[in-house]
Design brief:
CATH superfamily of the domain at 292-415: NAD(P)-binding Rossmann-like Domain
Order of helices and strands: EEEHEHEHEHEHEHEHEEHHEHEEHEHEE
Radius of gyration: 21 Å
Number of helices: 12
Number of strands: 17
CATH topology of the domain at 292-415: Rossmann fold
Structural class: alpha/beta
Strand order of the largest sheet: 6-5-4-7-8-11-10
Oligomer: single chain
Helix content: 25-40%
Shape: globular
Length: 417
Amino acid sequence: MTAQPNAHPANCRACGAPLTHTMVDLGLSPVSNAFIRPENIAHGEMFYPLHAMVCDSCWLVQLRDATPAETHFHDDYVYFSSFSTSWLDHARRYVASMTARFGLGPQSRVIEIASNDGYLLQYFHQNGVPCLGIEPSANTGAAARAKGIDSRELFFGERTARALSVEGWQVDLLLGNNVLAHVPDINDFVGGMPLVLKPEGVVTLEFPHLLRLLEQNQFDTLYHEHYSYLSLTALVPILARAGLRVFDIEHLPTHGGSLRLFACHQHAKHGTTAAVQACLDEETRGGLNATARYTAFAEGVRRARIDLLAFLIDARRQGKRVAAYGAAAKGNTLLNYCGIDADLVEYVVDRNPAKQDKLLPGSRIPVFAPEVIDSRRPDYLLILPWNIKDEVMDQMAGIRAWGGRFVVAIPETVVLP
């Protein structure tokens, strides 16, 4: 871990302390969801620094350089949650669990922040629980409204929360799945939460766990949409500043290993479980409050790039054809950091029509529908969203008929059995 004397000065988004320690610098990269339309092939692209630093005062890992939120969330946003069947199953289980645990029903109120296309709120809606989605991207919000979900095109923060509170929105459950990392002003975002929360209301937040990211070399989850990389250690003081207390933690397998955090008003009656301290202790043992752990991570990232490039170059020399599955943001980070283009990975397939017949940002690899695999018959299929590799291998099992093999590159390059 070395200081960056020549980098422009930056301060922690959470506590304001100077940022001096690099976790990993992935160089310049395009916005991961800025897919290229065919008519824009001749146009240039904007590349931005992708440089993650760790605050040695509060231990929040964050990108040094923040791109405006409007760069990512707009009328042509390409990520629709409902295209992953495993994610829909996860949402359905969440709704059943929260409904039972907190006695939610027609008398209750629920808000989801970053509700996307209504993938989760549809299950509350079906159960007769009044709910509201806050979703800044117009096209996904429209998809939610088509499901009967009230969806507002807003960015959440203190100002939005005050307006909702005046309107009468006080909720029993406020949830945000994989949104906390996406906000440039984390204090404003969290500061809005108590303003719409009933006295005994509950906040649940899900996010990829920084400890798992470090352990499993998940560097491809770094992209400009993710301003922060989260641990309980870093979040406890952020929530406390907003008058919120963490009272429970659940460990989830999603996104390579996530936390589900339960919070409430500081003086609410929810008892704090032993899982909270156990998680903090695990993070301390994992080195999350020591700069040496982050130095070791950067070296593992460099090895992963070398290994993937060696595999792809060797496959090419042998006359093998490589395609990829899943035009995911994490895949774009991986491809751009490794300098991979269509010479090494011929094309990517994806179930989402909003991504098909476009080019990946930076690498300019074309994106097609999954049916293309059957006609082109690649020798290897590189699974870019490794977090749903089992789902992908089930969907694409037909490649084995011609001897096709699946490959993942995180935490290291492996040809799967």
